Each structure stands twice: as structure tokens, then as C-alpha cells.
Amino acid sequence: KMDDDDDIPQLSSHTLAALQEFYLEQQQREGMKTSQGFNQYSIGSIEEDWQLSQFWYSDETASCLAKEAVLAAGKGGRIACISAPSVYQKLKEQDGEDFSVCILEYDRRFSVYGEEFIFYDYNHPLDLPENLLPHSFDIVIADPPYLSEECLQKTAETIKYLTKGKILLCTGAVMEEQAAKHLGVKICKFIPKHSRNLANEFRCYVNYASGLD
């Protein structure tokens, strides 16, 4: 009678060591070596891609916006993050909180988040999966990738389609008039900060009584 183990291919210790080394290097390269091991939701687990006009918020700003979203969404609320992955990652760190969240993002690296990831191109604002029903999110947080009226206007179509009402928009201070025109949102006192300083002054805009004033 043959030993059951015999037909299971074993990796040689040399291959195993090489493989471990490869993973370790990869982790270090990605800057993912955290003391608790790999946390795919921690900010910085996916690096900014400037060609996609990505700029992550500072940890503090991401936390503040995530907290505001949870409060605004309410118990069992649904939150959509459009082009705001650092807020999404902060929301995912809040285990055990009673809400659900989706990330609409052009950068396919975020597909590591599985079903919560929805590929999104603002040039096709309503090209969304059928299971994303109109007005099915308690709050939509959006940070359009470009400071242009066209980008805001198209992203606004998506926001208005998805939200039951509440909108939290982060964009440049220069977009104040357009934000009011396309989304009816007003500037808040809270000033969002980025992990790297941006040349443009950034602001938050809301259309409801938020905790950001």
C-alpha cells in the first residue's frame, strides 16, 4: 500500500526559501510590511499613481471623512466612494461597524477588494453594473480625479444617480461655483489634507448638515 503522502508534490527546501524571499521582497517593495503582517486595507498598501491623478489623503483626513460618512449613512447604511480610495480603505479598517461600502475606481489594482470594487470611468458616468440600483446609497463620497468642469459634471451624474440624497465632495477650492451648480453642495470649514502637499487648495463640500463645520 502506497503512502498517501507520496503523490503530493513537495517543494524542495531551496525552492521554498526562494519563494519566501520573493514574497518578502515583494512585501517590502510594496511597503506592506506592517507589524501585524499584511493589511490590504491600510492606506499606502496601494501606492499613488500620479499618471492617474491619484493623491491620497493624509491618515487624519481619511479617518475624519470615513467617520463622517458612517455617521451620515446611519445604522446599516450604504456608502459609495467614487475615486476616493483612501476613504474606502479607512472605512474597511473599521471592522464590526454596521455599514456597507463600494469603491468605484478607474485603477484596476483596487480589484483586490473583490465584489466591492466597481470599475469606473467618469467619461461614461452611467456605465455601471445593473446591481448598482439608482438611489441605493445613503451617502456618496466623491473626489473627481481632475479639476475640470467636465470631470465634475460627469462625476456629478454618477453621484446623483447613486445617492439617496447625501453628498460629500472633495475637490479644489476653485471648483466652488461648479460644485454648487452641478450638485448643490456648499463648502465646509473642514480642510482636507493630503499625504503629499498639493499645489491646489482642496476643500470639502456637502449638501446636508454634516459634522465637518
Automatic annotation (TrEMBL):
Per UniProt, which keywords does this protein have?
A: Cytoplasm, Methyltransferase, Transferase
InterPro entries on file: DNA_methylase_N6_adenine_CS, Efm5/EEF1AKMT1, Mlase_EEF1AKMT1/ZCCHC4, SAM-dependent_MTases_sf
Query: What reaction gets catalysed by this protein?
Result: L-lysyl-[protein] + 3 S-adenosyl-L-methionine = N(6),N(6),N(6)-trimethyl-L-lysyl-[protein] + 3 S-adenosyl-L-homocysteine + 3 H(+)
Q: Name one GO cellular component term.
A: cytoplasm
Record field: transmembrane: none
Q: Name one GO biological process term.
A: methylation
Pfam families for the chain: N6-adenineMlase
Any GO molecular function: nucleic acid binding
UniProt-recorded name of the protein: EFMT1 methyltransferase
Source organism of this protein record: Illadopsis cleaveri (blackcap illadopsis)
Annotated gene: Eef1akmt1
